[in-house]
Specification:
Strand order of the largest sheet: 1-2
Distance between the termini: 20 Å
Number of domains: 1
Shape: elongated
Order of helices and strands: EEHH
Largest sheet: 2 strands, antiparallel
Oligomer: single chain
Number of helices: 2
């Protein structure tokens, strides 16, 4: 079973379509879930916090001197959190389904 969620993006300052694996304009972070009980509210909250932190690590700090850079950074974080949260929900549903089948 998957125990990680990978958060990755091409830097928005470059052309995302041109980014390829190994391209220095692509960053990724692995969010581990092995130590979390995703069936519990605390485990799910812990995963959500890890996702937010990982998105910040991938997107980096916003250049505070530029409104455009701040907007790009905010967009980067929002997209990554939304995408990773969707994957997290699929992972949680999968784990819950496995538990339901195992208890029958």
């Amino acid at each position: 079973m998957f125990k990680t969620i990978i958060i990755a993006t091409a830097l928005l300052a470059t052309a995302p379509a041109a980014a390829s694996p190994g391209d220095p304009s692509t960053r990724s972070v692995i969010v581990t879930t092995a130590d979390l009980d995703l069936a519990s509210a605390d485990g799910q909250a812990g995963l959500a916090e890890r996702i937010r932190k990982a998105a910040g690590d991938v997107c980096g700090a916003a250049d505070q001197s530029s409104d455009h850079a701040q907007a790009v950074n905010r967009t980067c974080r929002n997209i990554l959190v939304r995408d990773a949260s969707h994957r997290a929900q699929l992972l949680i549903a999968s784990k819950n389904a496995s538990r339901t089948l195992a208890s029958r």
